[in-house]
Amino acid sequence: MYTVELIELAKSYGDFVAVSELSLGIQPGEIFGLLGPNGAGKTSTIRMMIGITMPDSGEVRLFAEPFRRSHLSRVGYLPEERGLYRGMNVLEHLVFLAELKGVRASEAARRARSWCERLEFTEWLDKRVEELSKGMQQKVQFVGALLHDPEIIVMDEPFSGLDPANAVSLRDALLELKKNGKTILFSTHRMDQVERMCDSICLVHRGTAVLKGELSAIKAQYGRSHVHIEYQGDPAFLQDQSLVASHNDYGNYVEVRLAPGADSQELLRKVLAGARVMRFDVVEPSLEEIFIDVVTKPRAEEAAHA
């Protein structure tokens, strides 16, 4: 049984197709990544999922039932755009958001103080929202999405505006929520940010799902076909097309994609023939590399048949 199921959703704005027959399912208690570049249709999909907009066609199911407004009391939502009242102080604002979801004011204040202590911004509780940095406002919205103890947590670009330390704090909080049985949907264009957190993913490009499923299974399909090399010396090995299909060269550090059938040990011997090697790691491709491969391959095939 899926906690969230989207069945052939479609949405257009005039002649622009934002989402095209998109289907996906999210299992209870998993972290699901809705990934893709800016403008891919991620936010449009989320807005249909939680009833902000209606699909032109298709169906949204939450908790194994057709979507109803009453389901939203069990959903926490952090939007991509900040929607805070700038003149309210932080604690009043968090209590207000929780009360909208049916939490008593005293309980809302207790939960808000607890979360703010955990995320280390209790000293800002009496400050007005307009006095906060963008990163601090993002933490306020994050807490506001959780105070009613939702079963589904939907986060659209949750790490936007956060420095590395605060991004780690939110990541750790979300991993703990997962351990407590919450179902979490991320939407982001920064695939590296959530790659290690997600159980399953859907890669979206131009409103269409181009790859989806369990992350471990997707990566297993691609195998360990990438090599990260840190070296000093001659980079001539990069020109051997029998070993190297493509590469990203950063000077004395290079990321190599092996040619089909190439042996990584043969590449190592080739590197050692002209360079001193400090690091040689055979790794799975990153999600970003997989996405680029999935998106560019059809274009290359179309060009070849043109």
What does this molecule look like?
A hairpin with a 2-residue loop joins strand 1 and strand 2. This protein is 33% helix and 30% strand. The chain has helices at residues 42-49, 90-100, 105-118, 134-144, 164-179, 191-194, 215-222, 264-272, 287-305; strands at 4-13, 16-26, 31-35, 57-62, 65-66, 75-78, 152-156, 183-188, 200-205, 208-214, 226-233, 244-249, 253-258, 275-283. The chain has two domains: 4-219, 3-Layer(aba) Sandwich (Rossmann fold); 224-283, 2-Layer Sandwich (Alpha-Beta Plaits), CATH 3.30.70. It has nine helices and 14 strands. The chain is an alpha/beta fold. Helix 2 packs across helix 3 (105-118) and helix 2 (90-100) packs parallel to helix 4 (134-144).
Give a quick set of tags describing it.
4-stranded antiparallel sheet, Rossmann fold, Alpha-Beta Plaits, 306 residues, 6-stranded mixed sheet, 2 domains, alpha/beta, disordered C terminus
